[in-house]
Amino acid sequence: TSFSTPKKKKRDDGMREHVTGCARSEGYYKIDKKDKLKYLNNSRAFAEEPPADTQVRTRPPLTDGRRSEQRRLLSSFTGSCDSDLLKFNQLKFRKKKLKFCKSHIHDWGLFAMEPIAADEMVIEYVGQNIRQVIADMREKRYEDEGIGSSYMFRVDHDTIIDATKCGNFARFINHSCNPNCYAKVITVESQKKIVIYSKQHINVNEEITYDYKFPIEDVKIPCLCGSENCRGTLN
């Protein structure tokens, strides 16, 4: 019942030579510790010392100031339309850190959680695109439901963005007669969008504001922005 096991033959390169000619047909067998250490040392040395022509050079991480500078340089190299599209794509991939909380101007407000440089996209005004007829119907319905404020932003003569029940933090931005931001309509893939731009440098915990530019009406809406050049009314 005892059979002598054949001696393990090794090739010139040190690897074991398979008797049957195929490693799969010989089943499981243990590898000598010397061979295993030799293999591990070779693989570890290869991993620690990559070839000189394949080494990857890493650059130091960018700070917030350097990122802002790079964005300004990129925008200066491109045209106005391309610059808007570039900024919009950057805004999608890296959103500004913002928060909404109680405002001294009116109810809720939007505040910056990081420094924002001048002439940068702050946030997109998101909502449902509706026609003027639908906007009139919804405005009456909101009054009947007891909703004090409706968040409708006119894009052009035919289109209005309604963020009253379907929107983002941009609807909390309050009006100011001396704002630090402004609204701009840009076209992305043949679709008009409203984006809030920064007029000046905005500090951390500073409230984001822009001018609503309401049309002049007989029934006035009081303005509570408290700026030096306050007009007293929104319309």
TrEMBL record:
It comes from Grus americana (Whooping crane). It holds the Pfam family SET. Residues 43-69 are annotated as: Disordered. Residues 96-213 form the SET domain. GO terms for molecular function: histone H3K4 methyltransferase activity; RNA binding. It is found in: Nucleus. Keywords: Chromatin regulator, Methyltransferase, Nucleus, RNA-binding, S-adenosyl-L-methionine, Transcription, Transcription regulation, Transferase. This is SET1B methyltransferase. InterPro entries: COMPASS_Set1_N-SET, Post-SET_dom, Set1-like, SET_dom, SET_dom_sf, SET_SETD1A/B. Residues 219-235 form the Post-SET domain. One of its GO terms (biological process) is methylation. One of its GO terms (cellular component) is Set1C/COMPASS complex.
